[in-house]
Amino acid sequence: MSELNYWVWLSQCFSPGSDKPNQLLADFDSPEEFYTRGLSELDGIEYLTDVERSKIQRTSLERADFILSECKRLGIQVLTLESASYPKHLKSIFSAPLVLYVKGSLEGLDEVPLITVVGTREASDYGKRLTGNICFELARAGMVVVSGCAVGIDSYAHLGALKGAGRTISVLGCGLDVNYPSAHRELKEQIVKKGGALVSELPPGTEVTPSIFPIRNRIMAGMSLGTLVTEAPERSGSLITAQHALEQGRDIFCVPPADLYSTAYSGVIRYLRDGATPVFCAKDVVLEYLSAYPQTIDVSKLLDSYAGMSGQSSASKAGKKAPEKRTVQTAPQKKEQASAAPQEEEDISKKPATPASLDEKEKRVYTCLEFKPKVADEIAALSGMEMKDVLAVLTALEVKGYVFSCSGSRYGLLNK
């Protein structure tokens, strides 16, 4: 029996987010010692409840054996609090996870600045574009973007970082083999492929439950130096991440509301009033950490302001031509013409040929798209594919820089 088996076993004896395992490790030298000596002393451990004692006694080492065999089969790395790759900032928080399940790599994260970026699932076009632009620049400047791979702001945080050729970390509220959200399978694959990682404290096979996300959010906040909220209403779950960050002594950044009369931005106002750093461009975040990471941060990659951009993506104005073509944006910019109708006809006539690099499903969806956005239902009907497959392919095409999304579940081709 390996030492790792006992770490996994102890992690399974308690609910996610409990600090009791860490208390036990303060009283016992290791999970193995607790298993061999502590089980006979459970009644004398005053901070354990009767329910916890019962669960410890019911949890078998065979459960840990099964989890580790599944991890080996699925290519999932298992880190413990004693592993060299376990993030040092996360290790310091209250109720730090005993075990992290990882796809990809967390190597070297202690030497670079990490920033968590969160926001509402019901994001506006403005919020998506802004988040993508900021994360594009953060990644180009040398920061690692952490988010939760949810729909809305989270996905644009990851997309922006990927298009900035940077690393991004996704902290999931399920097992790493669980396809949730189903439309983000390709996004998660790209995160790993581009040097980032998928992280969870939950073993393979663990399905999503609503109650896990507030608990998961402590990990998102704990991995980073600070948390940036780009768009959030008053009751947004992303504010739970911000609250965790405050409790952990991390920095809080907020993008000021685009519209003071809109409830879509009301969640950030309290934090701004309480002293959160306002963010008007990526530079406002990066400069906070330049003195601590002078060797890894490159300020020359940043814009001083987004003012005067008229909605155009900062990614398209900065750097090399490749990122310019793959900028996060919600709609292609149209040149002013005397009549809208001739412009639309001209755009359709110039629709590019289907890229040969796409797979069959991607080609099938691509041929149904135009520069003018179409709703997902229409794309599904034209392609003859199921909606879940269409959404997954559209996400893949967006990751690859061929498609943009906008409100109302509408998608169109990027006019490169």
Largest sheet: 9 strands, mixed
Question: How many β-strands, per DSSP?
Answer: 12
- Compressed to H and E, one letter per element, the order equals HHHHHEHEEHEHEHEHEHEHEHHHHEHHEE
Content of β-strand = 5-15%
User: Ends: how far apart?
Assistant: 57 Å
Helix/strand/pairing class, anyone? alpha/beta
Question: Overall pLDDT, averaged?
Answer: 87
Unreliable parts: 310-349
Number of helices: 18
Query: What general outline do the C-alpha atoms trace?
Result: globular
Description:
By secondary structure, this protein is α/β, with parallel strands linked by helices. Helices cover 38% and strands 11% of the residues. It has 18 helices and 12 strands. It has helices at residues 3-12, 20-27, 31-36, 50-58, 61-74, 88-91, 125-140, 153-163, 185-193, 212-222, 238-247, 269-273, 283-286, 321-325, 340-349, 360-366, 376-383, 387-399, and strands at residues 77-80, 99-104, 114-118, 144-147, 168-171, 197-200, 226-229, 251-254, 277-278, 374-375, 403-406, 410-413. The strands form 2 sheets. The chain has a 9-stranded mixed beta sheet, with helices on both faces. The longest helix is centred in the first third of the chain and has 16 residues, at 125-140. The radius of gyration is 23 Å and the shape is globular. The termini are far apart. The model is unreliable at 310-349 (pLDDT under 50).
